[in-house]
Amino acid sequence: MTDERIIELYGCGQSEEAFRGITDAYTERLYWHVRRFLCSHEDTNDLLQDIFIKIWTAMPAFRGDSRLYTWIYRIATNEVLNHLRKQKFKALISLDSASGILERKIDDDAYFNGDELQRELHKAIQRLPEKQRIVFSLRYFDEMKYEEISEITDTSVGALKASYHHAYNKIKEEMLKRF
What we know:
This protein is mainly alpha-helical. It is 79% helix and 0% strand. It folds into 2 domains: 1-109, Orthogonal Bundle (Rna Polymerase Sigma Factor, Chain: A); 114-179, Winged helix-like DNA-binding domain superfamily/Winged helix DNA-binding domain (Arc Repressor Mutant, subunit A, Orthogonal Bundle), CATH 1.10.10.10. The protein has helices at 3-11, 15-38, 41-58, 68-93, 98-108, 116-126, 130-141, 146-153, 157-178. It is globular and about 55 Å long.
């Protein structure tokens, strides 16, 4: 179902069908978007449910100023960041680093089916600063245009290009050290 059809259904009062259209169209894409940040199948599934609840409750506020999918990705990204901040706080209390916890989740995740190179790539991404990690993931994995990422993150295209460039160079440097 297209975003336009989803918006049309919602506007006609068929909100449940519209929401079903959103879940059908976005579950897999959002799963992988969230999973790249959380590194755990279970955590991702739990947060994904929260994200869809947030989308459902926020739907009346959608004004159409942005495209539906960038609006949905913005909600998902903000929820991921909130979740990561909570994890970071818990890690601070336990005297462990949040990126260290996420790296261990990559190693411990029974559902991770990549090779050693992919595992190290995901670990290197987890060590990036938050903004660079978001930009890199949206651009590299989701293949979004900078203009779309700009709508999601409310950041200028120029700043996004610089963040991606820095992230790319940091990851490249780490990967060259390891392999």
